[in-house]
Amino acid sequence: MQEQGIKKNVIAGFFWKAAESGGDQLITFFISIILARLLGPEKYGTMSVMLIFITIANVIIQNGFQTALIQKKEINEADLSSVFWVGLIISAVLYVLIFLTAPITADFFGDPDIVPMLRVLSLLLFTGSVVSVEMAIVARRMSFGMQCRATILADIISGAIGVAAALRGLGTWALILQQLIKNAALMLILNISLGWRPMFIVSAERIGALFSYGWKVLVSGLIDTIYTNIYTPVISKLYNSAMVGYYNRGNQFPQVIVFSMAQTMQAVMLPAFSKTQSDKEMARKMLRRAIKLSSFVMFPMMFGIMATAEPIVRILLGEQWMPAVPLLRLCCLSYSVWHLHVANLQAINANGRSDIYLKLEIIKKLVGTAVLVLSVRMGITGMILMKALVDYLTTFINGYPNKDIIGYGPAAQWNDILPEFCLAAAMAVVVYLLQVIFVVFGIIDMGSTGGAVIGLAIAVAAGVVIYLAAAIFFRAESLRYLIETVKLYTGKKEADQA
Question: Shortest CA distance to 352 belongs to which of 275, 291, 277?
Fold first, then answer.
């Protein structure tokens, strides 16, 4: 009964978090498409460069303490308020640092306009600090329905303002305004919904206890964020802002899907795994099912986008963005295994092994950085291809500790998901060849926007039918898992057993 109760709570949390993350990513994605058409590759490239510094600073402010607040079995007001005030102090220090070094950053990238824009964009640090505490409260309560509504409302408000600003010719400032409004709106809506107010408490003892666990997660997140975002400044320095824009767009298409799944898994699995720390068998079952289900969904989506990359870019972004197509395909290959990273790392963190988490990040990033240095001479396409190969290699590095922790290592994991991988790859090949037939025999003019829409619709429909038919024919375990999960959440399973 306990296992069934945990499972149902996890499914409910997963549903709401998926709706929140998916809605957030989807709305943000379509807003970014509108802004990309209005602003072009160069302005998007400039924004991408500036966001690197904000992202890294946010990791320092948020990652360690937020994860520690979620992972800790019991917390009180002293914990929450202490983290709130310390986060604002760290935000102020980092804001001053970014403010003073903005001219140096502008000189490095050869763009003086970065100075005022980066100084204004850095205000995100303060709202981000507050939101991180609010998100920790949401995760502990598993109130993901509230978070879903708050996030989507903030997206709609900020998106409308951002598009209006772009139409009035504000350029990159429209993107900055949209980001600032989004964070501020989310902070206010969550504050009202949660009803939580910080007290004037800063307990050194509480901060020390949380930091003893969280610093390893913080350093790990910092290493991962710097490595993940290092491609943008490297491309900017070697090429230009337009090429950064192409990479950013190619990266964003799969990122919308993968980050939605990753955020959902991270938000739901960490508290769920934390509740099963003493039951390794239950933790193993949860990790296996999470990996199987996410693979059943993620592999066909990533491989499907690879197969249909050209019409997707032509329809959504237009001809000026077509150089992003090969980068989009390689980014899909890279992101296709991210769900494995997230699932394994959350299982490790939930068991209090942030020391292992840190060691893994150091090993992976040393390997990744070495590969990046060696691949620079291969051009941007070679760089992203090598990055994808490293991401596949690191599934074994991330999964290895769980062989000892819960008895479920990388070999067993890949053995479990290989059927989904093969089915998705075969489906993608058929979908790609179908488009080739359209072009070779002149059935559909894939070079025009109208023809691309028709061709894409047929290709997607064919891909879905082929994948599901193959899953049914081969009796895929993941499909059965998915059906059982839906029944459990809707209550039909209990009704059937009664």
Answer: 277
The string of DSSP codes covering 355-412 is HHHHHHHHHHHHHHHHHHHHHGGGHHHHHHHHHHHHHHHHHHHHHTHHHHHTS--HHH
Task: Determine the longest span between alpha carbons in the chain, in angstroms.
Answer: 73
Q: Is 47 in contact with 252 (CB distance < 8 Å)?
A: no
Q: At what angle do helices 338-350 and 241-274 cross, to 10 degrees?
A: 40
Residue 282: pLDDT band by 50, 70, 90 thresholds? confident
- Residues 20-38: what's their mean pLDDT? 66
Amino acid 19: pLDDT: 57
Distance CA 150, CA 17 (A): 12
Q: How far apart are CA 149 and CA 186, in angstroms?
A: 10
Both structure tokens of 431:
């979908």
SS (HEC) of 135-181: HHHHHHHCCHHHHHHHHHHHHHHHHHHHHHHHHCCCCHHHHHHHHHH
Helix, coil or strand: residue 491? coil
pLDDT tens per residue, range 371-382: 988 888 888 899
Report d(CA 464, CA 227) in Å as an integer.
34
Q: For 452-471, what is the mean pLDDT?
A: 93
Mean pLDDT estimate for the chain: 80
Residues 440 and 434: their CA atoms lie apart, in Å, by 10
CA angle 466, 469, 471 (to 5 degrees): 105
Tokens for 267, please give them: 């938000």
DSSP string, 221-290: HHHHHHHHHTHHHHHHHHS-HHHHHHHHHHHHHHHHHHHHHHHHHHHHHHHHHHTTTT-HHHHHHHHHHH
Distance CA 232, CA 196 (A): 38
pLDDT at 495: 42
- How far is CA 36 from each of CA 14, 41, 82, 254, rounded to the nearest angstrom? 31, 7, 40, 16
Number of other residues whose CB lies within 10 A of the CB of residue 167: 12
How many of the other CB atoms lie within 10 Å of CB of 390? 21
C-alpha distances (whole Å) from 29 to each of 37, 159, 256, 282 are 12, 10, 7, 36
Length of the chain: 498
Report the pLDDT value the prediction gives residue 214, as an integer from 0 to 100: 64
pTM for the full predicted model? 0.69
What DSSP line would sit under 11-57, residue for residue?
Answer: HHHHHHHHHHHHHHHHHHHHHHHHHHHHH-HHHHHHHHHHHHHHHHH
Class of residue 285 by CB neighbours under 10 A (exposed 0-12, middle 13-18, buried 19+): middle
pLDDT digits (tens, 9 = 90+) for 300-312: 999 999 999 999 9
